[in-house]
Write a structure and sequence with these properties.
This protein is of the alpha/beta class. The chain contains eleven helices and eight strands. Helix 2 runs parallel beside helix 3, helix 2 crosses helix 11 and helix 10 crosses helix 11. The longest helix has 19 residues. Bound molecules: pyridoxine-5'-phosphate.
């Protein structure tokens, strides 16, 4: 199981003052040293946290892969190609949202993805789609030739008790369905230590990408300690 550490919110804090501190590059380097398997960063269209220079500098300073999260636009795909990005996760984006509120509407984006994905693959980019855990999404992925999915765990993060159990069970079934079709499975969004423990034993889950909680918790305990603890939980 790989741990991806999303360092967007170090940049959120930096941008609050418009200066250079705290530095997301330093966060990437510390996360790598503490055991992160990949660094994750979302280049948003409004550049509210990570910017183009950050991406270039992260790549220069880490020895683990960078996974770039981008909206499905020609500009972002070209940016990934120009910067020799090896891993891209395609996510939905709305200007007014506080965070990525749900998975990509794969049917709405079908024609664009069908046309553009071959260019990403030709440039040897490993592509995953950020999707809600629904069986119909898997069938569309197969039609598109997509072989990696990150499932949005935001709903699980926000529910408790019976509803939470129901959603975890649903995630497990969808993962089983996707894995049986040769799709590589990742998950993320809203995960903290407790929620991670609850989904960690789902078979076929290969990677968790976690940001806000790790960065928030590191204010109290230090980034290195928090990454180490999360890494220990996911084994
Ligand atoms: N995975 C994807 C595709 C995301 O868009 C995000 C949020 O940017 C995350 C994981 C991490 O979510 P969180 O910051 O809530 O841990």
């Amino acid at each position: 199981m790989r741990l991806g550490v999303n360092i967007d919110h170090v940049a959120t804090l930096r941008n609050a003052r418009g200066g250079i501190h705290p530095d997301p590059i330093k966060a990437a380097v510390i996360s790598e040293k503490a055991g992160a398997d990949l660094i994750v960063a979302h280049l948003r269209e409004d550049r509210r946290h990570i910017n183009e220079d950050d991406i270039a500098n992260i790549i220069k300073n880490i020895n683990i892969p960078l996974q770039l999260e981008v909206a499905p636009t020609k500009f972002m795909f070209n940016f990934a190609i120009r910067n020799n990005i090896k891993k891209v996760c395609i996510v939905p984006e709305k200007r007014q949202e506080l965070t990525t509120e749900g998975g990509l509407n794969i049917k709405y984006n079908f024609n664009f993805l069908k046309k553009m994905l071959p260019t990403l693959y030709k440039n040897k980019i490993e592509v995953s789609l950020f999707l809600d855990p629904d069986i119909e999404n898997i069938d569309v992925c197969k039609e598109l030739g997509v072989n990696a999915i990150e499932f949005h765990t935001g709903e699980i993060a926000n529910t408790f008790g019976e509803e939470e159990k129901f959603l975890i069970n649903k995630l497990e079934n969808v993962i089983k369905y996707a894995a049986a079709r040769g799709i590589s499975i990742r998950a993320g969004h809203g995960l903290n230590f407790d929620k991670t423990k609850k989904i960690i034993n789902i078979k076929f889950l290969e990677e968790l990408n976690i940001g806000h909680f790790i960065i928030g918790e590191s204010i109290f305990y230090g980034l290195s300690e928090v990454v180490k603890k999360m890494k220990k939980i996911i084994g």
